Amino acid sequence: xxxxxxxxxxxxxxxxxxxxxxxxxxxxxxxxxxxxxxxxxxxxxxxxxxxxxxxxxxxxxxxxxxxxxxxxxxxxxxxxxxxxxxxxxxxxxxxxxxxxxxxxxxxxxxxxxxxxxxxxxxxxxxxxxxxxxxxxxxxxxxxxxxxxxxxxxxxxxxxxxxxxxxxxxxxxxxxxxxxxxxxxxxxxxxxxxxxxxxxxxxxxxxxxxxxxxxxxxxxxxxxxxxxxxxxxxxxxxxxxxxxxxxxxxxxxxxxxxxxxxxxxxxxxxxxxxxxxxxxxxxxxxxxxxxxxxxxxxxxxxxxxxxxxxxxxxxxxxxxxxxxxxxxxxxxxxxxxxxxxxxxxxxxxxxxxxxxxxxxxxxxxxxxxxxxxxxxxxxxxxxxxxxxxxxxxxxxxxxxxxxxxxxxxxxxxxxxxxxxxxxxxxxxxxxxxxxxxxxxxxxxxxxxxxxxxxxxxxxxxxxxxxxxxxxxxxxxxxxxxxxxxxxxxxxxxxxxxxxxxxxxxxxxxxxxxxxxxxxxxxxxxxxxxxxxxxxxxxxxxxxxxxxxxxxxxxxxxxxxxxxxxxxxxxxxxxxxxxxxxxxxxxxx
Length: 587
Description:
alpha+beta; Elongation Factor Tu (Ef-tu), domain 3; Rossmann fold; 4 domains; 8-stranded antiparallel sheet; 14 helices; 34 strands; 31% helix
């Protein structure tokens, strides 16, 4: 049957969440239910996507949708790994997903990938529902055949209390992320409040209500943007795969128009867009047959949006996930320019900064945004694996805080690993952006401390110590006394002077708890040995001593601004002491 010239497509629903929180179980339950509920041939799991027609949703929801009419043909769930799929399904400045479901284990709460999913949804301004999964794992929970409000009310008091505490924790966490949220049945305005639907993906409890909420939101708020023309197909690459007997193929989501097996298409790559013909459009068998790998795909002549499809074509090797696909209809030059603009990472690079690499255009954009939000300068941003050249380039930067590569969901190539073993470069290679940022915070704090230590070691630093009269271990040859560091630091080999500027000697050694130490800082009490003085003559208990700093060092330290407030105060006192005899000291 021919596709009408204008029609309402099914909304694209991305499923996100932390690992092991139940994304797969949730989709498996829907797929299992749809197999049981459908008429023969009505449901097909496409590549990376599951289509659930509206009549099947009516069957699953039962009385919840009794008497309700929908113009939507159904829902298209994207079921590749969580936020990776979401960031891959993109258009310029936004995501192709119309709605999203964030799966959260109610007993485990928000985890790194949960926070990351929420951040990405906020970035792309995508409406979403939170599925509070694994309610059946709450101790004492009873599965009751009714709507959520009544199911909760009928739980034993202690179980109900535990459930409510966990829900309030989730509401509080979302509030901390600047989002209003509540259980779906308490919400008056879904445009202002995130709906939380308690479910058990394992048992199917609450899933009819979640489907009802999704369809209701889509029908009420999204119908206008779901009206599309049946013109040349537009899509987005989800994954690039090698298939036995087919070579390089792409899994794609078609979100507008139609694509036929005799069409020519243009697709974005790392460089120039590629123009190619279609060898085959491939669909998996229906769900109840997909488990048979010998007959995995059906060859089809045409599909229309919204759907998932595998495309076999020549010259797909350099295609990147997240790149746009366009069917050519006598406007090739325009399409090539459009695709170039959509595959170009649209942000300004810095002259100095770190390097960012990611698996897809969308992931790269998400990582760039998180980095920019932290004030991180970015010198280079690319799609693809970490190469030897990347390691060499990062190591060659002058600022030690920029000898860094963020690598999201990609590989470090063997040659790059060999180079990395001997290079002054750090690579954070993770599949969670949130984890990269956490690692960065920890690394930059340690790196700054290390840099400051190295800078301090180049100069004699200000220190002020007090002679503790109760700790005289030797009177002379050398004198060994206990001191407290009042401010700054002292080191072996540092000269000491009194408050009148007279030099008393050089620190020959230091001990703390009977162990030799090289340095003592503010607050520490140590024993020091000083050659050339006698206790009771040149020095006495309660005397205050300062480090004797060369004038050039004092000037450099003051100009470098590496001292804390206490150290600056000590340095000023040393300036006062020295300038009593040399008014140009330290200039």
